[in-house]
Amino acid sequence: MTNEDLPSNVTAPRPIQKRKRETQASRANKSARASNTPNAYARRTPPREPRPIEDGPDADLDGDRSPPRQLKRPGAGARLAREQRQAAEAARQRREASERQALSERQRSAAELVAEHYNAVPQLGREWRKTDSQIKGLRNLNNWIKSTLIQKFARPDTIPPHGYLVLDMACGKGGDLGKWQKASPPPALYVGCDIADISIDQARGRWAETRFKKMDAEFHVQDTFGRPLMEIPIIRQVGFNPNCGPGNGVIQGGMMTGGFDVVSMMFALHYSFEREDLARGMLKNVAGALKKGGRFIGVMPNSDVISTTVKKLLQAEAPGTTPARKSVTPKAAVADGDKDEGEVDDWDPEKPNADDEDDWDPEKASDPQPAASNGEVTHEVDEDEDWDPEKPSEATPPASNTLQQAQQQPTASPQAEPSPDRAPLEWGNPLYKVLFPRSQPLTNRPLPRDGIFRPPYGWKYFYHLAEAVNAPEYVVPWEGFRALAEEYGLELMYRKGFRDVLGEVMDEGGEGVDRGLVELAERMGVLSRDRSRGVGGLMVSEEELEAAGFYHGFCFYKT
Ligand SMILES: C[S@@+](CC[C@H](N)C(=O)[O-])C[C@H]1O[C@@H](n2cnc3c(N)ncnc32)[C@H](O)[C@@H]1O
Q1: Is the complex ipTM more than 0.90?
Q2: pTM score of the predicted model
Q3: If 0-12 CB within 10 Å is exposed, 13-18 middle and 19+ buried, where does residue 19 land?
C-alpha cells in the first residue's frame, strides 16, 4: 500500500528505524567523513572563490582547492591514453571521409559510365542503318513501337491553346525528334535532356539541320535521375512541383496549371534501378514535371521476361531444388509471346487523325525512297528515326562494367550449385545476348531461383545487341516499379510487351485494330503492303522478334 491509497485524514505510520550497531569499520568511516567530506549544511565559512576551470580531458578535477596548484604535466600513462584517443578519433574521421568519398565516387562513376558509354558511341548515317545494318527489322520495329506510344498516348485529352508540351528525359542523340514532329498534332515545345553531353550536341545538331520545324525544341545536359529538373530554366518556366511524391504521409498531386503534358523515357528507365535513390529521383522528376492528367510514356526491358527466364535457367541447372516457398512469379510468360497479366490495355486509345498520312512526312517527296532488304520500297520516316544507331564503341568502359568481364567468368558444370565464381547466366540468339553475372555485389545476393528480384534495386545484367550498346543495365521489377510510381501519383494506364503491340496490327481482321497504326507499320518498314511476303507481310525476322520480346511499353497517368 502506498501513501496515496490512504484516506486524507490518516497519516501513514512512520517506519521504525532500527539503530545499527556501531562497528569498528563504521566508526572509522564516520571519523573519516567528519574530517574530509565537506558537508554543505554544516558549512560555517563561505565557500572559496571557484577556481578557473581547466579545459580538456586533463583538467584538474582534484577536490583540493587551496591554494591553487601549479598545473602538473600529465603523467606518461595519461598522455598515452590521450594520444591513443586522439589517434583513434583521427582514424575514425579519415575512415568516414574516405567512405563518403568512395560512395560519391561510386555514385558519380555509375552515372559517368553511362554518359561516357553513350558519348563514345559513333553516330552512323541513315544509309548505313537502312542498308548495312543486320538488325534493320528490329530498328524499324522499335521505332514503330515508340511512334505507336506517341500516337496513342501523347496527345492530351484537352490540348491547351498554346499547344502541348513534351519533356524527353533521356533523349540521346535526338532519335525521336522526327516522331514528335510528325505526331498529330506535334507538341508546341519539346525539351530533350540527357546525361551524355556529346549525345546532346548531336541532338542539337540534328535539330539545327531539320528543315521544317513544327515545334520549338531545347536540349540540356542533365542527369535526370540524380539531379532535380528544377535546375533547368525552361523546366522551371513551364512549371515544376518539387513536392511531388511521398512526404509527410501525403502524396502530393500534380499541378493544375503549368507543367508538361507528356514526359517520355525511351529505353532508359532501367538505368535508374541501380539504386533506390536514383529510381526515386527519376520518379520525382517525372511527377514533378507533369501537370495533373499528364502522361508518362516509355519503353524498357520487361522484368517478366527476365524473371521467367532466370527462374527457368536456374532451376534447370539445379533440378529438384525448386524453392519450397510458393513463388509469386510473373504469371505472364512474355518470352513465349503470352499476354501480360499485369497489362492494362482496355483504355480507349485515341484514334489517329485521318489526316495523318498527309501530315506525316513533308520531306518524303524530296527524299529518295530507301529500298528494303527484300527489294520492297518502304515509306520509312526520315533520318531522325534511329533507335540505337550505334555500333559498339571502340572506347572500352571500365573493366568492372564490361560485358567482356561478365563473359570472362569461368564456366562450370551446369548441374553445379550456383556460386559467385561461375559463368554468367546467359541466354539469347545470334542477334542478342543477356548476361547476368552470378556475383551481384550491389544486392549482395545470388540470382533468385524463384525469379523474384528482391530487393528491387541493383540487379545488374548486360543486354548485348548486335551493332548496339552494352552498358550495364538493371532489372526493373515491374510490380515494385508500379507500386513506387503510385507513391508519386502515377497511375498505370497501359502496359504491353513489344510482341503483343505488334500482334495487334498483325491481327488485322480483329476487332478494334487501329488502321492508322497498321499504316504506320507499313510506312516504317515493319509490315509489307504485300501481305504474302514473309509471315503476314512481317518484315522483322524471328530472331529480331525474340530480341524485341525483351521489352515492353507503358503509359502512366498523373493524378
Ligand atoms: C538506349 S539510349 C536511348 C536514347 C533515346 N531515348 C532513344 O530511344 O533513342 C539510353 C539513353 O539514356 C541516357 N541516360 C542514362 N542515364 C541517364 C541519366 N541518369 N540521366 C539522363 N539520361 C540518361 C543515356 O545517355 C542514353 O542516351
Answers
A1: yes
A2: 0.69
A3: exposed
